[in-house]
Design a protein that fits this description.
- Helix content is about 35%, strand content about 25%.
- The protein has about 325 residues and is α/β, with parallel strands linked by helices.
- The chain has a five-stranded mixed β-sheet, with helices on both faces.
- β12 (about 315-320) and β13 (about 325-330) form a beta hairpin.
- About 50% of the residues are buried.
- It binds coenzyme A.
- Coenzyme A (COA) binds next to α2, α6 and α8.
């Protein structure tokens, strides 16, 4: 009765790009910094080395490099971008938003800009936010950037955490795509009862910075590894099943899964639970470690550049991490 039926647009990724800082930190470098071994790190996580940003590089600098490449790949100019979302847990500042800094650097003069925070599942969250702006016709082109300088919030004397993470950035341009292509379904979730499992305790409003918090190293990432591990292995199959059910698809329809790159053993255990071949999970954490909000895009860009992602392929992205939070989406690759 008097309602307007709006045809939603199909929204897909139309360009990807990434940036890896030059400096490589290997497991044998870490052996000189903390009580650990290459063998321990590789067998527990699959990580061999990670990239580390320069002291002079902030998250927006990495984000900018990845964004330029994604825009080139999409053949879209900065002036065509309507919105920039930077997905990160290591922003340049509390305020202003890192996305605004990137907007200026890119010369994306017409773009709105904001950051999104949901730890390692944030890039999937950001893609869904972007999808909705474009599906409704509000915006035409949205740039989603995942960028992290985790090296700056790590305690380099804590072997429980410092061996796991790395720096990097990835970017995706989203726009309208042909009928039948693009994002088909998603599932976003959180379980905030796991707040303490993975967090930076101080520096926020719960515990503002004091000389004591600095002395106690409370501005660095703390983690309960076992709890996060169990959580991840449970939620990956759960969220992917929910997304595929919404899309009316089966695991056998999926050509490639691009998971958050946290730990090879997490992905391997999840693959077993899902009864889906491990080789179809694209992994590059051996060279990059866990880059949190940047990791899915870094893996996706590499898979695309290696010719493993082709037009018509059905891809699943799945993220999980602090919050606790988790998320997945399924899309048909459009170019
Ligand atoms: N090098 C050598 N020994 C280490 C170590 C390191 N870098 N880090 C921890 N250890 C020690 C522990 O102190 C422990 O010693 P103890 O038995 O004397 O106390 C021993 O190794 C075993 O630790 P444990 O925690 O049982 O190992 P694990 O098999 O659970 O692996 C993680 C630890 C961190 C690799 C694993 O729990 C994990 O990957 N969790 C998920 C983390 C993650 O991905 N977080 C981000 C999600 S987005």
């Amino acid at each position: 009765k008097g309602s307007i039926i709006m045809k939603l647009k199909n929204v897909g990724i139309i360009g990807v790009g990434s940036y890896k800082p030059e400096k490589i930190l290997t497991n044998s470098d870490l052996e000189k910094m903390v009580e650990t071994s290459n063998e321990w790190i590789v067998s527990r996580t699959g990580i061999e080395e990670r990239r580390i940003a320069e002291d002079s590089q902030a998250t927006s600098d990495l984000a900018y490099e990845a964004a330029k490449k994604a825009l080139e790949n999409a053949k879209v100019s900065p002036e065509e971008i309507d919105l920039i979302i930077v997905a990160t847990m290591t922003p340049d500042y509390f305020t202003p938003a890192t996305a605004a800094i990137v907007q200026d650097k890119l010369g994306a003069t017409k773009a709105a800009a904001f950051d999104l925070s949901s730890a390692c599942s944030v890039q999937v969250y950001a893609l869904v936010v972007a999808q909705n702006f474009i599906a409704t016709g509000a915006y035409k082109k949205v740039l989603v950037i995942g960028a992290e300088t985790l090296s700056k919030v790590l305690d380099w004397t804590d072997r429980n955490t410092c061996i796991l993470f790395g720096d990097g950035a990835s970017a995706m341009v989203l726009g309208e795509v042909e009928e039948g292509y693009g994002i088909k379904a998603f599932h976003l979730a959180a379980d905030g009862s796991g707040e303490q499992a993975l967090l930076v305790p101080a520096g926020g409003s719960r515990k503002p910075a004091t000389s004591e918090t600095v002395e106690n190293k409370e501005h660095f990432l703390k983690m309960n590894g076992k709890e996060v591990f169990k959580f991840a292995v449970t939620v990956i199959p759960d969220t992917v099943a929910k997304t595929l059910e919404k899309a009316g698809m089966e695991m056998s329809d999926i050509d490639l899964i691009v998971p958050h790159q946290a730990n090879y053993r997490i992905v391997s255990a999840a693959a077993k639970k899902m009864n889906y071949p491990e080789e179809k999970f694209y992994m590059n954490l051996n060279k990059l470690g866990n880059t949190s909000g940047a990791s899915i895009g870094l893996a996706l860009t590499e898979a695309y550049e290696n010719g493993l992602v082709k037009k018509g392929d059905n891809l699943v992205f799945v993220g999980f991490g602090a919050g606790l939070s988790y998320a997945s989406l399924v899309l048909k690759w459009a170019y």
